[in-house]
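User: Hey, quick favor. My workstation is busy. Could you predict this chain's structure for me?
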Amino acid sequence: MYGLILRRIAAAILTISVLTVFVFALLYLFPGDPAERILQTRMNGELPSSRDTVEVLKKEMGLDAPPYQLYLNWARGVLHGDLGYSYVTRRPVITILSESLRATGELVMISMLIVMFFGLALGFLAAWKEDSWIDDMLSYLAILGISVPGYVTAFVLILIFAIGLHLLPVAGRSGLYSMLMPAASLSFGGIAMLMRMTRYDILEESRQDYVLAAKAKGLGEARVFFGHIFRNSLPPLVTYLGLELGGLFGGAVIVENIFAWPGIGRLLVDSVQSGDVPLVQASVLLIGVIFILINIIVDLLYTYIDPRIDPEGVL
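Assistant: No problem, here it is.
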């Protein structure tokens, strides 16, 4: 297990290092000179009147150094928690990022709990009522949930609960009620997929010979289900839930902008539109690191849940 952890940490460090190179390159992917963009942003879109002003700002911010030196300086700052300052607000990027991460974390965690509760519960129900009208109805709902994009779900919820019934606020972060529609939009597809996977895995495991042997020994239904069927169904479900958690952070980019939720997704889009490169770099880097950490945790959980997997043999 310790060998697996060390290999995963080494792979994560290498992946994050490659990610930092890509993120830093965003500075040069935006059109125009970086110093000119900074001045233009600070002057409300107007171009700087003098080239000398641009050159002075370059020297002040160290932007006149070679690209490799700029990267090393930026990477050194990242290691020390210094992500620079926003071009627009001139506030520390780490402060803005922590505020947005808190909002996104709330939304993603609530959405994840919704996915786990309804996905597992409906999957158990579909497996228990196999080939019944309940199973058929849940199958149709699952197909609908998998097929409909999250932003379509968001607009439908807005039309029904905000515009039609006037029950929920359409935008903003003002308490639990304002979180319901964004969380539902974000989790609808995940519920459908987890429900289908749970139903399939439960039915597949329940037909194995070891289940018949456990029942023949006189074990109760609850012990057979939770001690054998459900436990052996967990590895693929845990893998999916890990991927779904990362997917929720990615899907939050669209949902947060629809509902004006002040999270990482909305911050990223606003930063791109305003040309605020430090915020774009920090947002992309944070989302990438979250994905990497989630994958590491899923790998470790996988080997813990399924003892048949040799930790030293996992790549």
